[in-house]
UniProtKB/TrEMBL annotation:
AMP-dependent synthetase/ligase domain location: 47-338
GO molecular function, one term: medium-chain fatty acid-CoA ligase activity
SUPFAM superfamilies: Acetyl-CoA synthetase-like
Protein's name according to its UniProt entry: Acyl-CoA synthetase
Domain AMP-binding enzyme C-terminal: 390-461
NCBIfam families: PRK07787.1 (NF005858)
Superkingdom in the source lineage: Bacteria
Record GO biological process: fatty acid metabolic process
Amino acid sequence: MLLASLNPAAVAAGADIGDAVRIDGVTLSRSDLVGAATSVAERVAGAATVAVLARPTAATVLAVVGALIAGVPVVPVPADVGAAERRHILIDSGAQAWLGELPEDSAGLPHIPVRLHARSWHRYAEPSPDATALIIYTSGTTGPPKGVLVSRRAIAADIDMLAAAWQWTAEDTLVHGLPLYHVHGLVLGLLGSLRIGNRFIHTGKPSPQNYAQAVADGGSLVFGVPTVWSRIVADGDSARAMAPARLLVSGSAALPVPVFDGLADFSGHQPVERYGSTESLITLSTLASGERRPGWVGLPLEGVVTKLIAEDGTAAPHDGETIGALHVQSPTLFDGYLNRPDATAEVRSADGWYHTGDVAVIDAAGMHRIVGRESVDLIKSGGFRIGAGEIETVLLAHPGVSEVAVVGAPDADLGQRIVAFVVGDASPEALIEYVAQELSVHKRPREVRIVDALPRNGMGKLLKKQLLQEF
Ligand code: MCA
Ligand code: AMP
């Protein structure tokens, strides 16, 4: 069973350990979760796909769990989504209704509300492990985001692999304040807790103070993106407040070495770092019982195989120095991009290898270090994956823009920050707001530079590396 701790028979027999989920001021026991989510399942059963506006609330938790009980694929929609991106996600996914919260603009879809106090004790058969659990939209280098088909089998396998690597058990209390529309917060944080059976605390905003409070409340397994950890270290007191936790885990982007060292100094815990993607789920991690090496993301999880392909197409040696393109094989791989067999074929080979787009080195002991991305057009900002192309397309539709180039500039807080170089006569503030309104708030450029011309080569191709040299 995917959400093993919500087994109705066990819950009815009293395996209810009190507060299973704490989120947005609401506390749900396992019995509350099973009863209310099964009531959601009754209202949603039979739908082909539903969209969930994934704000960190109890309604979102019940919507996702209810749809999973009924075997209906969920499209988590970013809480801060703008008009154009919402339109794209709804049309591309074919979502038939909004389940849970209704956004300001429902785009004409029917609404299935979630009632926190409704209860049903109907027993649903467990859907096939091959069934799609989630369709998660994620950015490529160009074009609008693609819907990644994530199966129930992949989710279950990933959580089990991570439980072994992190010694994660029902005795833990997992803490995070991340979005519930991406793998990190939703699959690992929420669904992981509901599979393993540990308590789950969502902190709301992932501020250093909220993390410190959640650990004081018993948090033992703490998840964050590097920006969250970096702010905790900068705060000092909050970093010291991590001491009673069992394991601090960082992922979604590279954890800077000074942040690793700061956490170790203040809290006494060297963080575990792990690596993955929406398409592959988490495939590499350092171990609760093993070496944690600053700047390195660890070993393949049980069942994962990796290979490094050098520029000449041969296998790169595992000498800790030779750089190659990272490919992974894993029971956790996605089932393709929805409606995009072309894009799927570009990254997934017939024999089951996923081409990650990341460049890495591997040492003789099998430890992996991520060196960077193959393309400058895939940006990671605050742990969010953002395509330069999608932002350029939107900005080009603005009447005040005639040419644009978007880059990810190095940023001490966000890892990379989005900077748009624009030829045109619009104000930077207006363009930033335009992207926030059309795509999503977290994709807005943090900086717009109005320039006379963009650097191009003789063929007219943009020279982004030249733009990046300005930083
Ligand atoms: C600013 N704000 C605006 C605007 N500008 N609101 C509307 N329109 C605008 N133009 C508001 C925001 O809504 C927010 O308000 C406040 O300003 C702060 O926004 P911002 O500066 O963007 O947020 P931040 O505090 O800098 O965010 C940092 C963060 C965030 C919390 C670390 O980047 C984050 O949550 N990152 C996690 C991403 C993640 O989970 N990635 C996992 C992908 P208010 O605060 O009032 O709402 S999965 C993955 O990568 C793989 C599988 C893996 O390995 O995990
Ligand atoms: P996403 O699809 O949003 O999950 O983003 C996946 C990408 O995030 C990967 O392909 C990497 O580029 C990056 N990433 C995730 N975890 C790490 C990590 N620990 N270190 C460096 N990059 C990471």
